[in-house]
Amino acid sequence: MVRTETALLITGAMVFSGLACTRGSADFNLEISTSEDMVTLIRANWQTDQAGVSWVDFGRDGELGFSTPQEEEPSTEHQFTLLGMHPLDNVAIEAFTQVDGLTMSVGGQVTIPNAPSSLPDLEVTVYDPERMDAAPYVLGVTQGSNLIFGMDREANWLWYKDLGDDYCSFELEPSPDGKSLFYNVFAYPFTTEMGAFATHAFDDSQYDEIVTDGAHHSFAVLPDGTVGFIIADIQDWLNPETSKYESVVGDTITELAPDGSWTEVYNTWGTLEVVPHDSWNVVFYTEGHDWTHGNSLYYYEDTNTYLLSLGNIDLVLEVDRATGDILRSFGPDGEYTFAEGTEPFDFQHDVHWTDDGNLIMTTMLDGTRIIAAEYSVDESTKTMTRIWSHGEDDTFYAIALGQASRLPNGNTLVSFGTAGTMREVTPEGDIVWEVQGDVGMWFSKVILVDDLYNIQWEQ
Does one domain contain both 41 and 181? Predict the structure, then answer.
């Protein structure tokens, strides 16, 4: 990745606090730079004659208030990336080095350039901080603008990766160490011939890709570093009505182990019956009929199972990772069906378990409008009952995507997919935060995080 940097060199004196009078001061050069590829990332670099432990305090409008983590080991070379600042901010910076219990520092300022005009405009239409989840940052993926992004709750851009017109992404997760983002990249318009799994350091110091041809929509990162992917499996299917073979796209759960080996865990071929449906002739993949349309994948360590959503056939599967067996199936044609009076889910997205053992997702209402929905599961009757929903009173028309995630404070983060709106709602359905995007820009996966230096997310 080629980066262009603009730099400001600040020459000052490192002034010792505490026993400063016994040590005096030393010449000190602090270099501050901002990247033109991601202007909100500020880099602070300096050297010291003696090895010490360093950190940086910084903040906008001339006021300090943010801090980088401290170095873990003493060094004479000190390099930090300052995260969380806005475009056009005037950032105050004070760099510190501690040697033998004595602290020396030097300060400076830098003004961040404006963000690229290619970034979509976002509007915060509801903002109720007293009832919102406390997490101040949002990380996510947008379609239309094909962007990996980080922003604050006031929709100020903090981090961005423009994938361009030819590539897109649907999914992201933090890396286990909290320092990087994992996200998928594949060709746009959609094809199974190109796919990649990206690891991108949040300080933009490193970017790596692993080719994952056929992978699409979603992935799940396991504790040992294994990654499970939804990978398309295209086979010829004999249509009994025409007695002709047709190319049909099914799905697998396939794992990439840390040693580079691939293992197929589960395949829809041979376990599900191929039946044409309403979306059979909708051109999503150019290689064939989009049969199952896998669109979300979650892994659960306590049960060693995957939860796979197959949107085109309104089916959710719980799959045993060790054997590949279907343990439970949920949907109109599944083992677990819907209780009387409960409307079935339709073209469901981002299906996962809540801490209470319920299924939460987005689903279509009347085939056109998107809502968030939560279903309890009764093991004795093998039925599902919708116990919570949001969006019925809105007119969010969507053709794809969507997400509903329960937050630690009990609220729910809802993305309405191609409708281009995401919001946080209370259990009672009150909207306490809402962001709307440009026409033609829509949200895919979004997560809330507390700390940009240690990105953690509870699904």
Answer: no
